[in-house]
Design goal:
about 450 residues, alpha+beta, 4-stranded antiparallel β-sheet, about 5% strand
């Protein structure tokens, strides 16, 4: 009965309205930013080959029509912000953004995954219930109250991101060696005012420990009324500093806006009133309509969704070996900026007749693709199959593909990532452990 009572509790829809507007607006700006910087062309159209995700090999760019995909994503984000044909717009936003995310592994970032998940949640939340074009067109769709869990779902997703990112930082490299910040911070010593501090090792340790404590504690501090204002100030400072130090796009701004969901409905209503006054918008209705506790299907979806989100980051426990080395279970687990991997991969092609050659990677890959491929085992394997297929079509018979792959993890001496005697063209991608990887020259203890 406790669950039933919780599901019956209602609150103002105001936090959903502010989240919808802020999330849609920032995603719209993000798409414009991608377009204006020429990244659609350089990342998705110009490269000859693309690194797909296992199970999503069918997701490929559309050539010049990839611009149309980004246009659909931008317009759907704008329509979500405005609450225009909201449900259709939210579905289009989720599908188009997720498709963009899956087109090439070399562009993977945790915050793309976060955006996809939040967009999916919006599909099932009535965030257009007030101050939307939909409600101006049809007054009967207006809602003043929604179930508490509608707001709590967004809080829980934020909490998972932060807490899991904090748990991932509980490792020996991050806490005891200040890695990889000890490598990254000195490279930003030209930063005005505080840049000179980055030359000191103790600053890297300070940032590492503060980052860990911040991630583990911030959602709980945002939940409490007494600590919420100070916690939100910490959110703003943390993400602004992150944006200045590291090129991670719109993610810091999205997190700053998303964290507002922890504030009470009265706070969001004040923001709405201010926006209405500024834009001279009036939307009044004497009927105090309330959303129901949610359909059975919607509730089942949210239970399954969060069960997956809580369990998925721990899938790495099913694999042997050093996680940072093999990266098996590394992605989609909120392991944010935890390691610095540098290396190179030189591929040799052989066949039965004795032919052999050393591959020029620039012939097949963009600089970004080559950089990311050289240190990530699944991308190395995928590239080996690309080479095998290519050379089978260009005069080689039963092509064999070998790689000399040297990788340095968090500033350590480099060593071979792949056993050099392994013919990668015979290895298949799967969810099983990659036995053709070498052992790392260090053990990183922790979560």
């Amino acid at each position: 009965m406790v669950i039933e009572t919780y599901l019956e509790k209602k609150t103002s829809i105001a936090p959903l309205i502010i989240f919808r507007i802020g999330f849609g607006f920032l995603l719209f700006l993000s798409m414009l930013r991608f377009w204006s910087k020429g990244w659609i062309e350089s990342l998705y159209i110009s490269p000859t080959y693309h690194f797909t995700f296992y199970g999503f090999e069918f997701v490929q760019p559309f050539g010049v029509y990839t611009y149309l995909l980004f246009l659909v994503c931008a317009l759907s984000a704008l329509m979500v912000m405005l609450g225009y044909f909201y449900r259709i717009s939210a579905i289009l936003l989720f599908l188009s953004f997720t498709y963009i995310e899956l087109m090439d592994q070399s562009t993977y970032l945790n915050h793309y995954y976060f955006i996809s998940l939040m967009a999916l949640l919006l599909v099932f939340l009535p965030a257009n219930g007030q101050y939307s074009i939909d409600t101006f067109r049809k007054k009967t769709t207006r809602l003043y109250h929604v179930p508490n869990w509608n707001i709590d779902a967004l809080k829980l997703m934020m909490g998972i991101v932060y807490v899991y990112a904090g748990l991932a930082k509980l490792n020996s490299d991050w806490l005891l060696n200040a890695l990889p910040l000890k490598i990254w911070l000195p490279a930003r010593n030209e930063m005005p005012i505080i840049g000179w501090l980055f030359n000191y090792e103790w600053v890297a340790f300070l940032f590492s420990w503060i980052g860990c404590i911040y991630d583990l504690s911030i959602p709980f501090l945002l939940l409490k009324k007494n600590t919420r204002p100070f916690a939100y100030l910490a959110v703003v400072i943390f993400h602004i500093l992150t944006a200045l130090l590291f090129p991670i796009g719109m993610f810091p701004h999205i997190m700053i806006v998303a964290a507002l969901v922890f504030f009470p409905a009265s706070f969001h209503q004040k923001i709405i009133d201010y926006l209405c006054q500024f834009l001279q918008i009036t939307q009044k209705d004497s009927k105090q309509q309330t959303s129901s506790k949610g359909s059975r299907f919607t509730l089942i979806f949210f239970v399954l969704f969060f069960t997956i989100q809580l369990a998925l980051p721990f899938r790495y426990l099913a694999y042997p070996g050093e996680l940072f080395w093999t990266e098996e279970g590394y992605r989609f687990s909120w392991r944010v900026m935890l390691m610095e991997k540098a290396g190179y991969a030189q591929f040799t092609i052989k066949d039965q007749s004795g032919q052999s050659l050393v591959v020029n990677n620039a012939q097949f890959l963009s600089p970004l693709q080559e950089k990311m491929m050289a240190t990530q085992p699944d991308m190395l394997l995928q590239y080996a199959h690309i080479l095998g297929k290519y050379y089978n079509q260009h005069g080689f018979r039963n092509t064999e593909v070998y790689v000399d792959s040297y990788v340095a993890l968090n500033g350590r001496l480099g060593k071979a990532l792949v056993k050099p005697t392994i013919n990668l063209s015979t290895q298949k991608e799967s969810f099983q452990h990659k036995t053709w990887l070498t052992e790392p020259n260090a053990e990183i203890k922790g979560f």
